[in-house]
Write a structure and sequence with these properties.
The chain is an alpha/beta fold and about 375 residues long. It has helices at about 20-35, 65-75, 110-120, 135-145, 160-170, 185-195, 200-205, 215-220, 220-235, 260-265, 270-280, 340-360, and strands spanning about 15, 45-50, 55, 85, 100-105, 125, 150, 175-180, 245, 285-295, 295-305, 320-325, 335-340. The strands form two sheets. A seven-stranded mixed sheet has the order 4-3-2-1-5-6-7, with helices on both faces. A six-stranded mixed sheet has the order 9-11-10-8-12-13. Strand 6 (about 125), helix 4 (about 135-145) and strand 7 form a beta-alpha-beta unit. It is globular, with a radius of gyration of 21 Å. About 40% of the residues are buried. It binds NADP nicotinamide-adenine-dinucleotide phosphate. NADP nicotinamide-adenine-dinucleotide phosphate (NAP) binds near residues 23, 51, 78 and 104.
Length: about 375
């Protein structure tokens, strides 16, 4: 029997899309949270999905089902292997009135579920940046709807978006936003500053698990550009993807290479990046991969920063965001810390689920 969007105990069912690094960490955090939470605050998980299958119960998935799903995904399997799993196409039947969809995929396909959820008085929590970084005509609803949260999309668990939104609701206005928003590129810049060659720094970022399996995903700057767009739009500047000027940390000809060819040829870029690092050092500065945003557009790429500045002094994969606003003009407001990692990202998502659940209950 289908539920009406509120399970028997009156709470909004949560549907979790994505069982990768963040999705699995989030599921663990929710199970821990539910053990300690009072009954009205418990989070009811009615469905979980990966790219192949969905597992759901019209009321609530049992602890056993969730444990089986975690075991299967941790072992590199698919949810298809979990007893009772249905094809992913069945997921649209779960988008009932009042459901909260938590998107921890990196997919563009989820938009076809997110928008119906909102139109059925449900909510949306995103770690997935893609729905927010589409053309403004497609993405606007996610910035204006009261039942959407997306803290983990910029700076993972750091309170970047909530701070921005809180300033705006207090009547502040933004003049510029600047930040180091990629742990991977931050790490590569720090390593080059310490004397490593570009190819060595990249290899080390891969070995430490900071980089995507194909590191060009990080080096092309597209992920940082999406974050810049999200910050701009949250600050009230409805920029389009084309308003972001992005510098990739490899030449266009490297895009067509296979991953193996790319890995073989990466050392040919060592001299160019050693020179750029040296130029910054000669000027008493340091090279950082920086997003600079204002109402007219954004620029994402390498930038020489003063060594003792907030961005110049960052080490390793740390992130920092600097808000210059009407209230914080002479001395800008800075948020910094670890800006990636499954656990801190999942914690940011869990904070959003809890906040949104309270907000939706109060709005009933
Ligand atoms: N990892 C971090 O530190 C971090 C930090 C901040 C933000 N984020 C963002 O959080 C999101 C998840 O990151 P991750 O590291 O967990 O990625 P991941 O390990 O690649 O996991 C992605 C998950 O999404 C699933 N998926 C893909 N398409 C789907 C669809 N249409 N419906 C349902 N599930 C689908 C995948 O299924 P399969 O398992 O079947 O492949 C996989 O389980 C990304 O958008 C990322 O940018 C991550």
């Amino acid at each position: 029997m289908k539920n009406d969007g509120h399970v028997s105990n009156g709470k909004s069912p949560v549907i979790l899309l994505g069982m990768g690094q963040v999705g699995r960490s989030l599921l663990h955090l929710i199970l821990d949270y539910n053990e300690k939470a009072r009954i009205p605050e418990k989070i009811v998980i009615a469905g979980i999905a990966d790219s192949h299958a969905v597992v759901f119960d019209d009321n609530e998935l049992s602890q056993q089902m969730l444990a089986d799903a975690l075991t299967s995904k941790k072992a590199g399997g698919s949810l298809e292997q979990v007893s009772g799993a249905q094809p992913l196409s069945e997921i649209s039947s779960l988008i009932t009135a009042g459901a909260i969809i938590v998107d921890v995929t990196a997919s563009e396909d989820t938009v076809s579920l997110l928008k119906p959820a909102l139109s059925r008085r449900g909510g949306v929590v995103l770690a997935n940046k893609r729905p927010l970084a589409a053309a403004w005509s497609q993405a606007e609803v996610f910035f204006s709807h009261p039942y959407v949260r997306y803290e983990a999309t910029v700076g993972a668990g750091l309170p970047v978006i909530s701070t921005l939104r809180s300033l705006i609701s207090c009547g502040d206005s933004f003049s510029s936003i600047k930040g180091v928003l990629s742990g991977t590129l931050g790490y590569i810049c720090s390593e080059m500053e310490r004397g490593a060659l570009y190819s060595e720094a990249l290899l080390s970022a891969c070995d430490r698990g900071y980089a995507e399996p194909d590191p060009r995903e990080d080096l092309m700057g597209a992920d940082v550009a999406r974050k810049a767009l999200i910050l701009a739009r949250s600050a009230g500047w409805p920029l389009e993807p084309d308003d972001i000027d992005v510098e990739a940390m490899f030449p266009p000809s490297f895009s067509d290479l296979t991953l193996n060819q790319f890995q073989d040829q990466i050392h040919t870029l060592d001299q160019e990046y050693a020179l750029r690092t040296q130029e910054a050092q000669n000027a008493g500065k340091t090279l950082r991969y920086v997003a600079k945003i204002d109402r007219s557009g954004a620029k994402v790429g390498l930038s020489q920063e003063e060594r003792d500045s907030i961005l110049g002094a960052l080490g390793g994969p740390e992130n920092a965001v600097i808000f210059r606003t009407h209230f914080y003009n002479d001395v800008p407001l800075t948020i910094s810390g670890p800006g990636a990692g499954p656990l801190v990202t999942a914690a940011g998502v869990l904070g959003d689920i809890i906040d949104l659940s309270v907000h939706m209950r109060e709005g009933q």
